[in-house]
Amino acid sequence: MNGEAAWALYETRLRRVSAYIHEHLDEELDMDRLAEIACMSSYHWHRIYRAIYGETLAATVKRLRLHRAAGDIVRTDLAVSKIARRSGYPNLQSFNRIFKSVYGMPPARYRKEGSHRIFEPNENGKANAMFDVTLRTIPAVDLIGIPHIGSYMQISQAFEILGGTLNARGLISPDMKMIGVYLDDPDIVPAEKLRSFACVTGGSEVPAEPPLVRRAIEGGEYAVLRHKGPYADMHKAYQWLYAEWLPASGRQLRDSVMFEDYINNPRDVGPTELLTDIYMPLQKAA
User: Fold this and answer.
1) Which of 32-46, 69-83, 172-186 has the lowest mean pLDDT?
2) CA-to-CA distance for 225 and 276, rounded, in angstroms?
3) pLDDT tens digit string along 87-139?
4) Partner of 105 at 20 to 30 A CA spacing, among 2, 42, 63, 131?
């Protein structure tokens, strides 16, 4: 087997392991079991996984569970103890400790005082938070991506597959940007039917063999809101952009999709330091 064929085999196994992790986050994920799914020894598989993804399997599982837990804390009324059990922690104390180390405060306090709370309306019915929104005119951008159907909070699975595929094929380049393209309104479409794409920038020189697909972002004018903080908070920024900025701006929406430009990587920085530019398409000014 030549080197290209070997990496194609690793790529298939990476996708299989990534899918298993996302589908079984509620369960005890035994590292030896994941190695079995990869059809390799635990000794070698862990090293290949880290070489491709830039983090250990254990770090991936921890990051994904805490990401989902933060979403549950922000968007649901589930008891923190239940969220802790669902996240695979043996007791509430250990969950509190790990969550605080990553999000800066324990989960119960985060629910009451976390960064998402600044979007709550004040006595005038307006959000307490304000954002800097800039207007940018951009050219059309070619993308390479992986389609995702389901909750937008779970698009990380598609990004895992995208990153593993590009790495295994030697297609990663330093100038690639991570882009999320979102086709549906989560307030209207059921979570399990939401359509999105996990993408990186890449022109025709980047091969797009399955499971990769090509997409493009329309050029034109966009309102760009920079969001700093956990991805779980971003739906509040969208609400502010639509409900407050857009009416006050006097501008009209263009019939095109919104997208997100991820300035940094959740593998490299903590959730509170994540930077995301949200792009809202606008019609040409009169």
Assistant:
1) 32-46
2) 8
3) 888 889 999 999 999 988 999 998 888 765 555 555 555 555 567 899 999 99
4) 131
pLDDT, tens digit, 9 for 90 and up, residues 195-237: 999 999 998 888 999 999 999 999 999 999 999 999 988 888 8
| N-terminal to C-terminal alpha carbon distance within the chain | 62
Q: What percent of the chain has pLDDT above 70?
A: 91
Topology annotation, domain 3-113: Arc Repressor Mutant, subunit A (1.10.10)
The tokens for 179 are 């882009």
Closest residue by Cα to residue 167 from 268, 60, 52: 52
Which residue has better confidence, 71 or 261? 261
In the CATH hierarchy, which top-level class contains the domain 133-281? alpha beta
Phi and psi (nearest 5°) for 162?
A: -60, -50
The string of pLDDT tens digits covering residues 138-180 is 999 999 999 999 999 899 999 999 998 998 888 988 899 999 9
Sheet arrangement for strand 178-182 = 133-138, 220-228, 275-281, 258-262, 178-182, 195-201, 141-149, 213-217
Q: Spell out the domain ranges in the chain.
A: 3-113, 133-281
The residues that bridge with 255 in the sheet, in sequence order, are none
Strands (E) across 23-162 are located at 133-138, 141-149
Cβ contact 104:272 at 8 Å: yes
Q: Name the 3-class secondary structure at 125.
A: coil
